[in-house]
Amino acid sequence: MAQDHRLSVIVEDGDAHVRTVPPKAYHRPFSRNWYLGDPPRHSYEKSPPAYRVWNKPGPRREKLADVRNNKFIARRGGWKRLLILALVIVAVLVALIVGLVLGLRKKKHNSSQASAPPSSSSSSPTGPFPIGSYALNTFLDTVSTNCTSNSATWRCYPYTTYSSSPTAALATFNWIITASASSSGNYTISSTDNPFAINFVNASLTLLDANAATERYNFQIPINKIVVPSAAITSDNQIANCFFNATQFEANLYTKMPKTYPPASSSTASAASPSSTAATAFESWPYAVEVTQTIGGGSGVPDCFEVVNGNLGEQITDGLTAQAAGDMCSCAYKNYDP
Predict the structure, then answer these.
(1) How does pLDDT run along the chain (338 residues), one tens digit per residue?
(2) Burial environment of residue 246 by CB neighbours within 10 A (0 to 12, 13 to 18, 19 or more)
């Protein structure tokens, strides 16, 4: 047996005490020569233990090895397809959740709107007087037909004057007044749906007689008035339309003069006008009002045509002769001093 020869410690100081290291004991157990326990022992004759963790049953008693060996997954790209399928399922679930949340919010919003009481001024412009949406309740005061040789060709809604029936004579104009976009301190006025077939947008209002008792906002515009004659104007009783082009439409909206119509005690006035349903969303104009339609006689006053299947046909000239320019046709409405 070979002896263990170790080098002695080299000491530079000759007076230092020299310690000798005892030789290693060769009779120690094999395991004590390893400070960390027995050395690993490998055997090339045995296989490593099976990885049983992969065969651990799943929540439905299936084994992960079965999933791994599934034909769908085992095919090329199987795991990628499984991942795509999972992503599609997640996307569908997210879409369903988002749709459900939005649907509930919309339902809640609609129910809150339905439960809230309607506001008559919700669609009205806001601002100082006279800005707002107004119902001008007037009565048909007078009718003149001198501009035409056939009085049946000129008519005024609601076709009944105050002298014939104060209730049936009610005519309501629903108008909206807004601040002028082009001039500070000025106002414009526009019509809404009405049985008069008179439509205009952003007509300029002019203040007249400022600070006087007759202070009023005035506007004048030309309109093409269309009339369905009250009686046949052809020998074969053909339906006709008559056009009074360049009829002058004028209104005065007083700011101090009181109104007297309709009477506060009247309970049937609002039911007499077909336009009263629209007027419920408009505030009543608090002062006197005058509205007129006028046109003088002359060539082409009026121009009448047959109506066939809703279309204009031949012009009607029989029985229609031009009147003098000073002969006027008019419809006059107001809400004071019947």
Answers:
(1) 445 555 555 555 545 455 555 565 555 555 555 555 555 555 555 565 555 544 555 555 555 555 555 555 555 556 677 788 888 898 888 888 888 877 777 665 555 444 433 333 335 677 899 999 999 999 999 999 999 999 999 999 999 999 999 999 999 999 999 999 887 789 999 999 888 778 999 999 999 999 999 999 999 999 999 999 999 999 999 999 999 999 999 999 999 999 999 987 654 444 334 444 443 489 999 999 999 999 999 999 999 999 999 999 999 999 999 999 999 999 999 999 87
(2) middle
**Separation CA 155–CA 324 (nearest Å):** 19
SS3 readout for 123-141: CCCCCCCCCEEEEEEEEEE
Residue 11 CA: distances (Å) to CA of 17, 19, 22, 186:
9, 11, 18, 116
Helix, strand, or coil here: 198?
coil
Tokens found for residue 240: 């006709």
CA dihedral 228, 231, 234, 239 (to 10 degrees): 40
CA proximity to 148, closest of 325, 7, 322: 322
What 3-state DSSP class applies to 242? strand
Instruction: Tell me if residue 55 falls in helix, strand or coil.
Output: helix
CA-CA distance, 74 to 128, in Å (whole number)?
79
DSSP state of 84: H
Residue 228 contacts residue 212 (beta carbons within 8 Å): no
Burial of 158 (C-beta count, 10 Å sphere; 0-12/13-18/19+): buried
Helix residue ranges, H only, the chain: 64-68, 71-74, 78-115, 269-272, 276-279
Nearest to 278 by CA among 217, 160, 159, 193: 193
Count of residues for the chain? 338
- Of 170, 188, 190, the C-alpha closest to 179 is 188
SS3 state of residue 316: strand
